[in-house]
Amino acid sequence: MDLLITGGTLVTSSGESRVDMAAKEGKIALIGADLSHVNAARRLSADGKVILPGLVDTHLRLWEPRPEKLTQATRAAALGGVTTSMISVLCPKGQDPQELLDAARRVYDGKSAIDWGMHLALDGTPPVGTMLEAMR
Asked: Of 74, 89, 98, 110, which is most buried by a Cβ count within 10 Å?
């Protein structure tokens, strides 16, 4: 293993428990009550610390697609424990939503420090019913 974190309090929707966690190549490989037997290149003590699953920010506002804004915002988010952000993309009246999403995806792709997705903030056009019909 690359990293062994010992003695943290893991908090999930099921409750809290004292755990050790081992990671390999940047991904959690093992979680257990006592992983002291695991051979790891680096060891960290999490005694007195809380371990949380990655947080999801469901509404990151970056109204215009600019890669430097995404990079800066997602780096800050990662420092706060956010691992995924949903970017709110404003779709002005008269603009094709799919074209806007495709353009934003081209601008943002490869610029984020964390996982990301997008959702549209529609500004009254086209009518939602028309959009839903076009998606069928």
From this structure: 74
| Cα end-to-end distance, the chain, whole Å | 47
> Do residues 54 and 84 touch, judged by C-beta distance below 8 A?
yes
Report d(CA 19, CA 86) in Å as an integer: 30
Cα separation, 15 vs 21, in Å, equals: 17
CB 95 within 8 A of CB 63: no
Burial of residue 123, with CB atoms counted within 10 A of its CB: 0-12 exposed, 13-18 middle, 19 or more buried: exposed
Give the pTM.
0.59
Note the pLDDT tens digit of each residue in 20-45. Answer: 999 999 889 999 999 999 999 999 99
Cross-strand pairs, 49: none
Nearest CA to 91 out of 74, 107, 104, 76 is that of 104
